[in-house]
Automatic annotation (TrEMBL):
It comes from Listeria welshimeri serovar 6b (strain ATCC 35897 / DSM 20650 / CCUG 15529 / CIP 8149 / NCTC 11857 / SLCC 5334 / V8). Keywords: Lyase. PROSITE patterns: VOC. Residues 2-126 form the VOC domain. Transmembrane segments: none annotated. This is Glyoxalase family protein. One of its GO terms (molecular function) is lactoylglutathione lyase activity. Its EC number is 4.4.1.5. The keyword Cell division does not apply.
Amino acid sequence: MKIEHIALWTTDLEKMKDFYVKYFGVTANDLYENKTKGFTSYFLSFENGARLEIMSRTDVTGKNLGENLGWAHIAISTGTKEMVDELTEKLRKDGFKVAGETRTTGDGYYESVVLDPEGNRIEITC
């Protein structure tokens, strides 16, 4: 078995799509829209086949700030420590919050943690 995709609610679908395309090299499908339900979405495909669905619906508008029960983060592997460093600095330079500086974790991951435009945690790993 494998995870087919993970879904994420967003208030600004286009901004989030552009973020993941620019910094993580995903390919977005055409916009899906269900006007009856006030729902729109994109599937963002990573090179290895994993997909992230970003979704917006007119009645989904709130967000709890900080840590909450449920999904904590998404981890995206760059392949090398140098690429983790490079992407982390590019995101910082472009004004995104680095919530965790590059480091080697106790379980052996080399990573940083950044926040996407809506504050979702992304571990950049190798």
